[in-house]
Amino acid sequence: MHTPKVILSLCLAIGMAAALPAVGSTNELDGDLYNYKRGTSELDGDLYNYKRDKAELDGDLYNYKRSNAELDGDLYNYKRGGYKRDNAELDGDLYNYKRSKAELDGDLYNYKRGTADLDGDLYNY
């Protein structure tokens, strides 16, 4: 029979191998919400932090509309060169994001850019 040390070593080796992350593309889907990385853009977790150049949107939920930008959410931090943009509005609990014909709306979001669809609790982009 195997000694307890051998059995423990075997269990630890199997556990460590199972804990290693799978190698995949740079797009990641993680958890109830998401972790999305594309280039330098990063959307991560329950809250998110989105940076594009000097723009930063950070909070629970948001409403961001580009050109006549609107930021709408529970918590957020929006910076573009340190000033509020044009007629930016801050208001509400959920969010609605429109960039030309793109819409993000709801508890999480539905996002269409070209033919890409992101929809629901998790997403596939």
List keywords for this structure.
two-stranded antiparallel ribbon, 1 helix, alpha+beta, 8 strands, 13% helix, signal, elongated
Order of strands, main sheet, comes to 1-2
SSE series = HEEEEEEEE
Number of helices: 1
The total count of strands amounts to 8
Query: What is the helix content?
Result: 10-25%
Describe the biggest sheet? Answer: 2 strands, antiparallel
SSE class? alpha+beta
What share of the residues does DSSP label as strand, in percent? 25-35%
| Shape, principal axes of CA atoms | elongated
Number of domains: 1
Overall pLDDT, averaged? 45
Task: Describe the structure concisely for a colleague.
By secondary structure, the chain is an alpha+beta fold. It has one helix and eight strands. It has one domain (26-120).
